[in-house]
Amino acid sequence: MGLNWIKRLRRTLERLAPTELANKDAVEPKAAGGTCPSTLLDEYVSAFPSAQNAVDLVAGWNHALPAFTGAVTGSNIPMFADARMDWCVEQFGTIAGRRVLELGPLEGAHTYMLHQHGPAIIHAIEANKLSFMRCLIVRQLLALDRAQFMLGDFQKWLERNAERYDLIVGSGVLYHMSDPVHLLRLMAEHTDAVYLWTHYFGDHAMPTGDPRRGAFSGEVKTVEFQGKTIRLHRRSYHQAWRNKAFCGGMQDEHYWMERDQILAVLGMLGFADVRLGHDAPDHPNGPSISIFARRPIGSAEGASSIRS
Ligand SMILES: C[S@@+](CC[C@H](N)C(=O)[O-])C[C@H]1O[C@@H](n2cnc3c(N)ncnc32)[C@H](O)[C@@H]1O
Q: Is this prediction's pTM over 0.85?
């Protein structure tokens, strides 16, 4: 009698608050017929230990891992051998022993490439939980012992501490920001050398009627920066964030800058030595470019050069 009463109570509680109950009670072993709902025993991997087991833990991989890992992600995009990162390091010079900050590592592909050059430390800050988990798996599989991945907002990191870096790598992040000018200013406060790969807005490269303009609302917000009016073009992801491989920003509302205005802001921030590469006005997602910018130490104010 007493036992039945307890069983009935337990069933009622399970209906009302299944999660809380599961947290309090030990999980029941799976029945021989496999009738038991998911239990902690389902979290075990009984296969032979492998890189693939680790990769399969997290959904939504965007890039192919180096073949020597022996694991496949379902993507064939070779981002772990990206010519843009070679170019970045070429412009900077050796990063051996240097401190690097990487914004939005996604899956650690560029982290891996930078790591091969022997930096002292790479701080890589990623806000997306799934991406962060993929980064940790990559860190383990590729032995990136000098890379420290952190989960959170890189803008807050830059706003709230005084760490200095020899190089800040911001590939694929500027155009995801709700205030991209603010990000440029923050980067400039922490380094004398930045690499950006970014999309940009431009009537010439992306004229009215160009299908790539479809994601823009048409709203143009202006912000003042050191007396100059900067135009920001509002864009939406149009629910691309429903996909686990989504790799955009934290808010749907994000703004693209114009190419010349990105360069103007960098110039006003003191980055007088600016080099351009990979200019692709016809990139399928919107015009894009690589920018390496350096603030020359002891250089005459106002002297600037842009090389492409
Ligand atoms: C387009 S992906 C670029 C990935 C990689 N850097 C590359 O160039 O291939 C943008 C990455 O930045 C991350 N991200 C966007 N906003 C962020 C923020 N405020 N703080 C940290 N990570 C952010 C996204 O989750 C995503 O992983």
A: yes
